[in-house]
């Protein structure tokens, strides 16, 4: 069984910064792509940023230039959030393609961490 645990959410003022972390645990052979998603109240879950094992990244247009995703190739994922805005308020979820064997992969999710941007 694989678990993803997010941390680092909280209340932050507009223009401030926050750093989210995610750690994977359990029966892990290797981890493929990892990413951060978010879901605001009444909205669908959306991709924020993704990073592959080779370090290539993809960002949602809304966060380009403000957020930075990074990872190690062991089990940790990060999201540095700068210049946050009220519209960044959402529950942020960690996602990872986790291999439990050479060909056995599953798309795993954390339970989410709440980020609230307000003055």
Distance between the termini: 40 Å
Major sheet characteristics: 7 strands, mixed
Low-confidence stretches: none
Helix/sheet category: mainly beta
What count of helical segments does DSSP give?
A: 0
The Rg value, from CA coordinates, equals 14 Å
Give a verbal description of the structure.
The chain is an all-beta fold and 119 residues long. The protein is 0% helix and 57% strand. The chain is built from no helices and eleven strands. The protein has strands at 2-7, 10-12, 18-26, 30-39, 46-51, 57-59, 67-71, 76-81, 90-99, 105-109, 113-117. A hairpin with a 4-residue loop joins strand 7 (67-71) and strand 8 (76-81). It is elongated and about 45 Å long. The protein starts with a strand and ends with a strand. The model has no long low-confidence stretch (mean pLDDT 95).
Write the layout of secondary structure elements.
Blueprint (H helix, E strand, L loop, with lengths): L1 E6 L2 E3 L5 E9 L3 E10 L6 E6 L5 E3 L7 E5 L4 E6 L8 E10 L5 E5 L3 E5 L2
Parallel strand pairs: 2-11
Antiparallel strand pairs: 1-3, 3-8, 4-5, 4-9, 5-6, 7-8, 9-10, 9-11
How would you briefly describe this protein structure?
The chain has 119 residues and is mostly beta strands.
């Amino acid at each position: 069984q694989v678990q993803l645990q997010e941390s680092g959410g909280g209340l932050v003022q507009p223009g401030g910064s926050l750093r989210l972390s995610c750690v994977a645990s359990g029966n892990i052979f290797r981890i493929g792509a990892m990413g951060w998603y978010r879901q605001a109240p009444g909205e669908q879950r959306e991709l924020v940023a993704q990073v592959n094992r080779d370090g290539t990244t993809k960002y949602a247009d809304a966060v380009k230039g403000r957020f930075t995703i990074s990872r190690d190739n062991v089990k940790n994922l990060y999201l540095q959030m700068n210049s946050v805005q009220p519209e960044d308020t959402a529950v942020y979820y960690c996602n990872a393609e986790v291999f439990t064997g050479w060909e056995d992969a599953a798309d795993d999710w954390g339970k989410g961490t709440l980020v609230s941007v307000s003055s």
